[in-house]
Specification:
six-stranded mixed β-barrel; 16 helices; 11 strands
Length: 460
């Protein structure tokens, strides 16, 4: 049987039982639509998470700790650093400059955070202050902010997080342009030899005269006035690890110039050996995410513990892969039910067209020709149902996205696109629909091919 004859016969048979075939095709379309809608939701959520993390700038960053700090921060990081590994190098200025010389490094910034008392008028508030580099202005946390970013890296300006701003004034927008005063603890080195001898204790292995003792420092209360220039809804960097946990932000250079007492300073004071000023953590910013793994390995070879957001996204990608599998399984259930409709439709067609099948065989049609005829009918219903299902799934995704954004607007949150239909999902849905339809047509086609032409011609 020629191909165009096969197509013509299949088309005529589909038109003769238009209502039944249309209902079967609609069942396939509903199954494909549910599959497309669920998978597009999973893809959209993954794109949203990746887009938000990419906008934070942390995809291009490597967070560096000393090995001792890494063991103390979290259970995951403790597992990453074996217990028998020493403390490694001190995370000091020399290490910072060495990291800055690595290929493709744009900047190396310290983590400067400190508790302070903030005075506004006659009221005072105790909060955490964090320094922000100038490159942080590209973070998504500053999208739609009230006011503006810092005018310069050395400006005596502050940006408040919205919840803290509401504590200061129930109308936070009125704070922009006003001044607050920081009261903080400044670290001053003990320059006087006499004071140094009284403040120092002998180091382990020292001679008791303070020759190998650790350097000391005194703490002095200082004040600094800052002008409020902006208010943000969310914390920069999303609170990754120890970063972004501030409620008042100021330029990083200004924060460093305050010489506030850091946790690392107290730790260094307790050491038995002398050491220079060290940092709690450093953030190494690369030119692109592709260069992060190489920099991370180079930093680890220097004797430090390095963490990047790419490490965390491996688990995130695994989660979304599992989510897509489950959504795909549940979406395929409706398509499986639709395949039963195809089987039922084609089996009924065999009973109605036994004489036609007998005539075809009497005229010389082979069993293969009869099978191909039923396969063509099943494939046509699968293709039509797949195309209609993709359109319905696209519409369902748009509806879900619209409803979600209505809810977000009611909660005073920015709209988001949580739905995405990539080309591979469309192609995969069409191919899957056709394959399921062909598989459903295997039994009816095989049954039709086995009919005895003599018995088929006698059938009334």
């Amino acid at each position: 049987m020629k191909t165009h004859d096969l197509i013509e016969l299949a088309s005529r048979n589909l038109r003769e039982s238009a209502l039944r075939n249309a209902l079967t095709t609609l069942g396939i379309a509903v199954g494909v639509a549910s599959l497309v809608a669920m998978l597009s939701l999973g893809v959209g959520l993954q794109d949203l998470a990746s887009r938000r993390l990419a906008q934070s700038g942390l995809f291009e960053s490597v967070i560096v700790y000393s090995r001792r700090e890494a063991r103390e921060f979290s259970r995951t990081e403790r597992r990453a650093v074996p217990a028998d590994v020493g403390e490694g190098r001190a995370l000091d200025e020399a290490a910072r400059q060495q990291m800055a010389k690595l290929p493709n490094v744009l900047e190396v910034n310290p983590d400067v955070r400190f508790p302070t008392e903030v005075r506004f008028g006659e009221r005072s508030f105790f909060t955490m202050v964090a320094g922000l580099p100038d490159s942080a202005r590209s973070s998504d946390a500053f999208d739609g902010m009230q006011g503006r970013f810092f005018s310069s890296v050395a400006a005596d300006e502050a940006i408040l997080q919205i919840e803290f701003a509401k504590d200061v004034n129930p109308l936070p927008a009125t704070l922009i342009g006003q001044e607050v005063v920081l009261r903080y603890a400044e670290r001053q080195p003990l320059d006087s030899p006499a004071v140094g001898r009284r403040a120092r204790a002998p180091a382990a292995g020292g001679d008791g005269n303070g020759e190998a003792a650790f350097p000391g420092f005194s703490v002095v209360r200082r004040e600094k006035s800052l002008r409020i220039v902006g208010i943000i809804e969310t914390q920069p960097f999303g609170g990754i690890s120890n970063f972004g946990r501030g409620r008042l932000f100021l330029p990083l250079e200004v924060a460093e110039a305050l010489h506030t007492v850091q946790v690392s300073n107290v730790r260094d004071l307790m050491r038995a050996t002398p050491t220079l000023k060290t940092y709690t953590a450093l953030t190494v910013r690369m030119a692109s995410p592709a260069q992060v793994p190489a920099a991370q390995q180079a930093i680890k070879k220097m004797g430090f513990s390095a963490f990047s957001l790419l490490d965390a996204t491996r688990n995130l990608r695994r989660f979304f892969a599992v989510l897509d599998v489950f959504l795909g399984i549940f979406g395929s259930l409706a398509l499986g039910v639709a395949s039963l409709g195809i089987v039922n439709t084609l089996v009924m067609a065999i009973l109605e067209r036994r004489r036609e099948i007998g005539i075809l065989k009497a005229l010389g049609a082979s069993d293969r020709d009869v099978k191909l005829l039923f396969f063509a009918e099943a494939g046509a219903m699968g293709l039509a149902g797949g195309v209609l299902g993709v359109v319905l799934g696209w519409g369902m995704g748009r509806l879900i996205n619209f409803g979600t954004n209505v809810y977000l607007r009611q909660q005073d949150l920015p709209p988001e696109n949580i739905w995405s239909v990539p080309w591979w999902l469309v192609a995969g849905a069409l191919a899957f629909s056709i394959l399921v339809s062909l598989a459903s047509g295997m039994y009816p086609a095989s049954r039709a091919a086995k009919l005895d032409p003599v018995q088929a011609l006698r059938y009334e």
